[in-house]
Amino acid sequence: MKDFLDNLIRFPKFLALISLGVLSSFFAPVVPLLKRPATAIALVVALVGGFMALSFTLRAMLGYDPV
Question: Residue 57: its pLDDT value, please?
């Protein structure tokens, strides 16, 4: 039973490490883009625009906005 509990405790640690590794590998190429002002502004505008497009699409699909 102790082995089972030890394995059960290991899985959240494994999940956290895998998640951090994926986030790290995603943000590593983005960090050099943030050092130049032109690309940083373009990246921020693209992120805000993508969020707004997703928000508007979900609102229209779920019927929150009257058309």
Answer: 93
